[in-house]
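Exercise 4. Each item below gives a protein and its sequence. For each, produce the structure-token representation.

Item: Putative adhesin (Roseivirga pacifica).
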Amino acid sequence: MKLKSTLVMLMFSIISFTAAAQDSGNFKLDEVYNMSSNGTLHLRSEDADVKITGTDRSDVHVYIERNEEVKGMSSARGRFDVDVEERDGDLFIRERKPNARFTMGYYRLDYEITIEMPKTGSLRIQGEDDDYIIKSVNGTISIETEDGNVDLVECMGDDFEIELEDGDLRMDGGNGSLYVNVEDGDADIRNGNFKDIEIRSEDGDVLIETSLSNAGKYDFSGDDASFELVVLSGGGDFDISKDDGRVTASSAFDLIHESDYRVEYKLPSGEADVRIRTNDGRVRLSKK
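Answer:
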């Protein structure tokens, strides 16, 4: 009888322990905050599906919903929470996770962050395993994340800085300066009008469409990465260095020099400086 009572108490403790741990990870926020029209929204999160849209509104609407489902045994120290701070015209959003978690069994996380902000504002984002869809935000955009994917749609600002590890970048539109550092993911960039580009890739495939500025500098480098550059307008000098990689170009490009490790092309109607370096990847040049 004593053993039976002990087992019942143990099972009750485990159920209570798991329920409390699951509840500690659930969170919901639906609020409006102040931010200046040219302010910066700072976001730090992990494992979220993030959607940010630039609109004509003069404030910021933040909706966050996070639900954990646990079937088994789980514990957590502390509760999940989000700190939001208005400061000097900027808005800071930062999550606070439980200090430690132990889980045995089934675990599922549904975590969504939806933000509507002034379209003239800027973004500074730090994430880990988040996926981002960002539309019509026309200020400076800086994103640093590990394994998540980034989609930028109709973001017509002049300064983009994006660092990814294993995620993919998809981008439609953009002006000014573009810096991309992606390790094993792919980058697909369309309809660009960039004056300066710096792209670093290790093993991914990079496709970029952009016009070329006469005074612009365009620098691409990778180990086993492949680069496809589509010129929408303009021209310039193209200097490509390689080890075992293959280089091809459409008939619009004039071949100036070719050796085992270096190829030079000229595209009339411009004076842009384009440099591409790859070890074993492919390089393809074309004009639209």
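Check: The longest strand covers residues 59-76.
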